[in-house]
Amino acid sequence: MKFSKLSLTSGLATLSLLSSYAYACSSCGSSATTPLVLNPNENLKAYLGISQNFGYMNYKNSDSQGAIRTTNPKLITRRTLTLAVGYRLTDDAFVTLTGTLNQSEGPININDLTQGNKVKYVLGDPILSGRYNLVNMGIDNVYRPQVQLVASYKPKLAKNMVDLDGDAIDTVGNGFHQVMGGIDFWWGMSWLQFGASQLLTYSFDRTPDNVNAKGETQYKRTRDLQYTTVLTLGHVLKEYKLAFQTGVILDYIGEETTYRRNDAAGYSTKNVNPTQQSNSVFFLVKYNVTEQDTLRFSYTIGGAYDGNLGPFTNSNQTTSNSALVAYEKTFF
Predict the structure, then answer these.
(1) How far apart are CA 325 and CA 50, in angstroms?
(2) How many angstroms separate the CA atoms of 172 and 184, rounded?
(3) What is the pLDDT at residue 28?
(4) How far is residue 281's CA from residue 250's CA, in Å, rounded to a whole number?
(5) Is the separation of the CB atoms in 74 and 94 below 8 Å?
(6) What is the tens place of the pLDDT at every residue in 218-237?
(7) Residues 188-210 pLDDT 10s
């Protein structure tokens, strides 16, 4: 079973800077996939977020009537503590480092729910990200967007089902070393703000070399490219130090293949997991307590639309809803 990357990311979004001189906001177009961004006047910033994922649903292959959706029997809730720090390298570039601790809850025995539930604590994969401004917004042209290059690296460090035969609550992450790159657009100078981004993720081949219950050795695992599209609308109420955003995340994960060898029978096989599609809708409110302190509240609906969206129909994916409370502190 594979969990949506939205669980790792916890439906996080970043809004435009609430200052008297600018609406600029680094990477607002793709901020729903990033827990921490630095605004133009920030050099060192920390983030603490607590989120809870619930309502886990499995989507099977789509058909003319849409996807077949069923309740995920293995996972009830997942609480995530996210810590991140960001540092500005130049006027146009900054880096962030993000880590997570997950508390997962699921049934002891999915075939006998009367046995109750169990809880496991698992560290998530860290993520090192970088952003670079190609074009900056300015009051001389309110229609000129901020254009930013986005890149990140996620090593495979967390427990996962690629390398281990664990239960759903024992594992997080997808088991692949991954690099992500993309481009981000943010029109933040108008009354109605708009963002759009396109991200591309490459997964390195894995060599788990583990044995399953059938005595087969999984000696290789691959995953095709992943495409993530984020569309965002926002509005700022400067007099109340409030900002709002809503948007959608369209996540397309390429085909995953496992290569297996049965030493006793002397043959090798491969098992193909189809491509996956998940669509999410996010809502966020951000409040500037002071110039250095910010609170944010967000809610994400995973697998938001049940009907038939053609190639964008939810399929072959596990999704969940999430609620988040976070605090940001700018040091200088």
Answers:
(1) 6
(2) 27
(3) 61
(4) 9
(5) no
(6) 888 899 999 999 999 999 89
(7) 888 899 999 999 999 999 888 77
Neighbours of 77 (CB within 10 A): 17
Residue 233: both structure tokens together: 């609308």
Please name the amino acid found at residue 168: A
CA dist., res. 126 & res. 152, Å (int): 10
Backbone angles phi, psi at 269, to 5 degrees: -135, 170
Tokens of 8: 């790792």
DSSP 31: G
- Give residue 235's identity as a one-letter amino acid code: H
CA triple 98-49-252, angle to 5 deg: 60
Ranges in the chain, pLDDT < 70 = 1-32, 62-67, 164-167, 213, 265-266
Helix (H) or strand (E) holding 8, with range, is helix 5-9
| Cα atoms in the Cβ-side hemisphere of radius 13 Å centred on 122 | 21
**Distance between CA atoms of 106 and 320, rounded to whole angstroms?**
14
* DSSP per residue, 79-107: EEEEEEEEEEEETTEEEEEEEEEEEEEEE
Do the beta carbons of residue 235 and residue 222 sit within 8 Å? no
Query: The pTM is what?
Result: 0.85
- Report the pLDDT value the prediction gives residue 62, as an integer from 0 to 100: 54
Cβ neighbors of 95 (< 8 A, separation 6 or more) are 86, 87, 89, 128, 129, 130, 131
Residue-level pLDDT at 190? 84
Q: How far apart are CA 104 and CA 125, in angstroms?
A: 15
